[in-house]
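User: My notes are a mess, but here's the protein and flavin-adenine dinucleotide's SMILES. Can you give me a structure?
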Amino acid sequence: MTALHRSQQQQVLVLGGGLMGLAVAHGLARHGGSVRLLRRARRDAAGFAAAGMAAPHAESLGGSLLALAQRSLRMIPAWVGAIEEDSGLPCGWLPCGTVVPFTSEAQRQAFPTAAAGRPLERADLEAEVPGISPAFTCGLLFPQDGQLDSRRQLMAALEQACRRRGVLFEEEVTVERLCWEEDGSGRKHLVGITRRTSDGKRLWLPCGQAVLCCGAWSHKLIPQVPVAPIKGQMFSVQAPRQALRRVLFGPGAYLVPRQDGLVVVGATSEQVGFTPGLTPMGQTRLERSLRELLPAATRWPPMERWYGFRPCTRDQQPVLGPGPLAGLVMATGHHRNGVLLAAVTAELTRAVLDSGAAGLPNIPWATPFLHAFRWNRFSPASAQDSVRQD
Ligand SMILES: Cc1cc2nc3c(=O)[nH]c(=O)nc-3n(C[C@H](O)[C@H](O)[C@H](O)COP(=O)(O)OP(=O)(O)OC[C@H]3O[C@@H](n4cnc5c(N)ncnc54)[C@H](O)[C@@H]3O)c2cc1C
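Assistant: No problem, the inputs look usable. Here's the predicted complex:
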């Protein structure tokens, strides 16, 4: 089924309107699809908390996840171009490269993605990151890595691009249940959802196609897909412009310099469920890591502090492609790399929806990823049985 054919036949519901929901909705709408996006709360999306690094090499990704991430990284310039064209707003894409510093040569050699980086000796490290602590004797530069200003620019640009492409937004609605019917062969098909509005009304919405993009909250709708929240706290400081030109990916903290001199410092990684708020311990730990990495940065004035919840699966890899119900596509569990993976997730999701009843797109590049990131890799036996049903 082509995108045009699909759009004439049925609307796609995008469940959740954080980074993935917006990226998927935009990708579909830009190719002629009819899309309705439902989200509970705009500001609780991790997309508004992310540092925005697009840094698969500094993040030491491996296997299929590295391949997916490298593909997404290559797609980002064109993807950003499309969003900026549709929205008229910048996304803050900066192919600034990432520096990973080490305290010994042995550490550098053991770094999983070392082969993709350019070795830096102490003098090179100082040239790349003026003022870096003398504890760091060498490093790796990954010039291919970059960053997007997800918090201040990308999310707003995606929202505007979606609106201009005709995506319908339903705000402050919680999707409560996915509803299905079984066909003669025992296969379960999505037939609709129920949603609760902010004034407590419970409403039914029929649909044959939906994309699950509920981030850290996804398990509430699909309990057999183990997505849990990992809280991340951050803060920002205002540096002189160009004081830092590369992302600095240190052992206890990373620094992400925006073009206007704002430097985002992150991030804690806490298994505390959805406990809200900043903590003195989390913030102090980040400040100490900053001091140990780049002592001069402690003199830069503090700006903002915030936190968000990363959607993390048991193997810390995303869940993509056809879901437990026919008609339901998964786009969740992106954990620390959702900004990096948004471009390829939007593309992959559109390919799956375009493949229609066949279930899997006939695109050679997509097939290995759909296998690696399938929803039922965690507990194949439980298959369709625990989708919440009215
Ligand atoms: C501190 C921090 C730093 C990060 N840094 C980076 C980084 O440098 N690089 C990178 O690539 N990634 C980074 N990430 C990860 C990235 O932000 C996430 O992977 C990504 O935002 C996940 O997108 P999502 O759409 O799945 O979830 P979210 O952006 O969290 O959006 C989920 C949305 O779904 C809505 N929702 C949930 N349940 C329902 C429901 N039942 N009904 C309706 N709506 C619902 C929520 O209200 C929310 O708006 C970071 C994350 C954090 C928290």
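Residues 1-8, 382-390 have pLDDT under 50 and may be disordered.
User: Great, I'll file this with my notes.
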